[in-house]
Amino acid sequence: MDLQIIQQKIFEIRGQKIKFDFDLAALYEVETRVFNQSIKRNIDRFPKEFMFRLTSEEWILMSSQIVMTSNKRPKNALPYVFTEHGITMAASVLRSEKAVKMNIAIVKAFIALRKFAAKYSDMIEQIHDLKERIGNHDAQLNQIYEALENLLDEKVEVQNTKDNWTNRERIGFKK
């Protein structure tokens, strides 16, 4: 399975990266109902940080953001979502060869996303540092421009004073 396809089905909610129960069932090639039954039989293996059910508001928000043509979920049934640890635990519950292979692929996809996020945060930090440095340079350049303008103003003033002195109307004897 292509990591990119798996990554496209990883979403973020409540500050956690998750996969929907119906997406996992499709990857493991079982029906969502069968997948969820297996999970419910082993519910003690799935604490809140491994798996949780979306609220109605979260489901409306998520379903408006993603296209779910294959999912014909009843209106009252809210999907379960699984974190990376929950996905690992689900593979141990399903115990099929397909589940183990898919679990490895999914964990690799999560690792790739984490690496990308780390690189992305490094770039953000570098951009912030550059912005700060450029901001400091702008302030320093403004001070230099101001000093140059002051010097030019003083030079013009001195020149005007000299010109006024030499071009003054003389009093006294005229030749």
Q: What is the residue-mean pLDDT, rounded to a whole number?
A: 81
Class by SSE composition: alpha+beta
| Outline | rod-shaped
> Could you name the ranges where pLDDT drops below 50 across 5 or more consecutive residues?
none
Based on DSSP secondary structure assignment, what is the total number of beta strands? 4
CA gyration radius, whole angstroms: 35 Å
Largest sheet: 4 strands, antiparallel
Name the helicity range. Answer: 55-70%
Description:
The chain contains six helices and four strands; from the N terminus they run αββααβαβαα. With 175 residues, it is of the alpha+beta class. The protein has a domain of 119 residues. A four-stranded antiparallel beta sheet has the order 1-2-4-3. Helix 2 crosses helix 3 and helix 5 packs antiparallel against helix 6. The longest helix has 70 residues. The radius of gyration is 35 Å and the shape is rod-shaped. The model has no long low-confidence stretch (mean pLDDT 81).
Keyword list:
8% strand; 6 helices; 4 strands; four-stranded antiparallel beta sheet; alpha+beta; 175 residues
SSE diagram, text form:
Elements: H1 3-8, E1 11-13, E2 16-20, H2 21-27, H3 32-41, E3 51-53, H4 56-65, E4 80-82, H5 84-94, H6 97-166
Antiparallel strand pairs: 1-2, 2-4, 3-4
Helix pairs in contact: 2-3, 5-6
